[in-house]
Amino acid sequence: MSDRVRTLWKAAGASVPGAGHVRSGLPCQDAHVWKLEAGGALIAAVADGAGSAPCAAEGARIAVQSAVEQTAAVWRVGRPHQGDDWNQVIRGAFATARLAVQSAARSLGRPSHDFSTTLLLAVATPEQTAAGQIGDGAVVARWDGEELTALTRPPRTEHPNETTFLTSEEADAEMQFMLCEHAADGLALLSDGLQMLALKMPQGAPHAPFFAPLFRFAAAAEAGRTEEQLRAFLQSPGVAERTDDDVTLVLAVRQLMR
To answer: CA–CA distance from 119 to each of 61, 182, 233 (Å)?
Structure first.
C-alpha cells in the first residue's frame, strides 16, 4: 500500500494548569508538541517543568520542541528500523533537548536547573513504536483496538514527588527506552498530573477504564474541536478534584485509509 492510503493519524494535545496552580496564581508549567511526518509517522513529546524551578515552563517548552524537531529531522534523512538505531534516535533527541535547555539558561545567565523539566518522547510508525522518558509521566500504546501497554512508566522512587530531570547528571543513566515491533493504533502521552487517574499504581500499568473512552473520543471527535474538547476534559471536576498538578495529555488514534 502507498503512504496515502496506509495510515492517517488523528491527534490532539492539551496542557492545562492544575488546581493547585490555579489557586496559587501560577501558570501551567507543562508543554507538549506533536507532528505528523511523511511515511505515516507520528512524533509526540510531553514535558513537565519542575514546580520549584523559576523557568520551568520555558524549559518544558524548549524540551518538547527541540526533541520533536530533532526526531523529525532524523526521520526525514534515514528512517530507523533496528533497535540500536532507534535507541540512538531517541537518545539523540534527548541530548539535543538538553543542549537547547542549557543554551537558553546560559543566554539568560541562569543555572540550567532553573529550567528543570521532565521529557517524554514517542514515535509511532506503520511498523514500529518507540518511546523514551526521563522523569515521571507515561507513554501508553494501544494495540488491535483494545490491548494497552505502558511503553514507559513513572519510575519507582524512595520519596514522593522525587524525579529525574532532563538536565540532571543521572538523566542518561535513568532514561527509559522501549521499542515495540508492532504498529500501535492508539498512543497517549501524559504528564504526572494524570498518573493517579490513568495508571494502576505503583506498578504503572494502564487503567483501561480511563483510556478506552478517550481513544473512542479521539476517533470520533469533530475535526477542529478535538483539542478544545480535550482541554475541557482535563479541566473538568472529575480530573481537577483528583490532582493539584498541571495536566497534559497527547492523544492519537491511527486509522487505515483505503
So the answer is: 10, 23, 23
Burial class (CB in 10 A: 0-12, 13-18, 19+), 121: buried
CATH number of 3-255: 3.60.40.10
All structural domains of the chain with their residue ranges: 3-255
Element of type H or E holding 7: none
- By CB neighbour count within 10 A (0-12 exposed, 13-18 middle, 19+ buried), where does 255 fall? exposed
Tell me the per-residue pLDDT of 217-231, one tens digit each, with 9 for 90 and over.
999 988 778 999 999
pLDDT recorded at residue 1? 40
Query: Does residue 162 or residue 207 have the better pLDDT?
Result: 207
Q: Where are the alpha helices (DSSP H) in the chain?
A: 3-6, 19-24, 56-77, 83-107, 171-174, 195-198, 208-220, 226-234, 237-240
Task: Report which DSSP code applies to 115.
Answer: G
What is the rounded CA–CA span in Å between residue 103 and residue 53?
16
